[in-house]
Amino acid sequence: MDQQTKKERYEEARQEKMQARKSQTSERKQRWALTWAAVAVPVAVVIALLGYILIKTGGASIPDIGETFSDQGRDHIADGASHPAYNSNPPTSGWHYATPADWGVYDKELPQEQLIHNLEHGGIVIQYKLDLDKAIIAKLEDLKKSEFECKLVVAPYKGLDKNIALSAWHRLYKTDTYDETTIKNFIKKYRETGPEFVPCSVKAAPMQQAK
Q: CA-to-CA distance for 26 and 77, rounded, in angstroms?
């Protein structure tokens, strides 16, 4: 009887040691995870801010392009809701929907009220007439697919009075001819000039259907 009791005590002690080891291992893993998060999150923020600074300073030496328009505010409105007239076409600020468009290339028009939200986030919107030469459309779309992966939307817009329009927050450049240098300089100079900095972390598809 005594021998059996000793075995039971031995087994109980062994189980307690194993449980203690598991607890220590779990605690170490939790500490490691917290340490990693404490390091990784600030590093990610720093990288995003450095990218933002590089983009902002990269266009400092480029002369002004296009026109500047006064601020019409940043009010959110319900999808489809009416609002006062914008002071430019396409608009560069003002009343807009709560959800911006995904960064990417579209083959159909997007609401101007949605695209203003993209401008607010520091994006550039390139819009073109529906009957624009397909070779030029392909060049505009290629800007998004290659050199300017983030913070750019390319889409058609029937309401244009020029073949091509580039808009940023408070800034608009319209032209009938494709000048690649000027277009690229506009993107470099005015990208990340919106009032809100939202990191571009999601890679959009090369071609998207308008929502």
A: 49
